[in-house]
Design goal:
The protein has 226 residues and is mainly α. The protein has one domain. The chain contains 9 helices and no strands. The termini are close together.
């Protein structure tokens, strides 16, 4: 129970520092990467029974940490941060393809594609020309990641992995929500308390994705003892 509490406290400090402005930048620089590092710590002892999926999720989390650091500089770091998260989503896609074939449920992919296209169509006129190609590529990867997580959930119904797959699917949806809010705030109109909504949904998404890895027997025993 200690790790979730630590992650929640660090996330709260990072969000508060972001809302309070430049005077608290040092707190943001410390606690934003630290929160993601704690999510990685949550994932690290997990992954029993699927080494390849575990490795890919850990790679995705590590790339996300790199992206978090880049985005501490919103202007100069936006593009490298975008690329870091794009690579993270590719790692997550590959991870979710381990238990379920890519696009094994075409209707699920179609539904996510429609949602992503609707969101992008509203933002597209405000996206600078130089960023349109990377933003489009990122949206395709993000929607594919979320859709493949949902496919895993659908294919795992009534199996031992259903709970893990559900966590991945929820994480995918939350990631889409977080990045949609980020894009709206950056390209369309400023959102009130933007950092609160963006970062809260982002870390919830990452925690869910980390939780999609099967816990070790030691973790299960510790949970039961608590």
């Amino acid at each position: 129970m200690l790790l979730p509490v630590l992650a929640l406290v660090c996330a709260a400090v990072a969000i508060a520092a972001s809302l309070l402005g430049p005077a608290f930048a040092m707190l943001l620089f410390a606690f934003k990467p630290l929160t993601t590092a704690l999510v990685i710590a949550h994932a690290w002892p997990r992954g029993v029974g699927s080494l390849r999926q575990t490795r890919l999720v850990r790679i995705g989390l590590a790339l996300s940490l790199v992206g978090d650091v880049f985005l501490l500089w919103p202007k100069e770091g936006f593009l490298p941060g975008l690329v870091s998260f794009l690579l993270a989503h590719l790692a997550y896609i590959a991870a979710f393809c381990v238990p379920a074939r890519l696009a094994a449920r075409p209707l699920v992919f179609a539904a996510y594609a429609v949602v992503a296209a609707l969101i992008l169509s509203q933002l597209w006129p405000d996206v600078p020309g130089a960023l349109r190609a990377p933003v489009l590529g990122y949206v395709v990867c993000l929607a594919t990641m979320a859709a493949q997580a949902a496919v895993w959930w659908r294919t795992a119904a009534a199996s031992a992995d259903e709970g893990l797959a559900r966590a991945a699917a929820i994480g995918g949806v939350l990631f889409m929500v977080s990045d949609s809010l980020l894009a709206i705030n950056r390209f369309a109109l400023p959102l009130p308390f933007a950092s609160l909504w963006i970062l809260a949904t982002y870390w919830a998404a990452q925690w869910c994705i980390a939780s999609s890895l099967r816990p070790s027997h030691a973790l299960e025993q510790a949970r039961e003892a608590a």
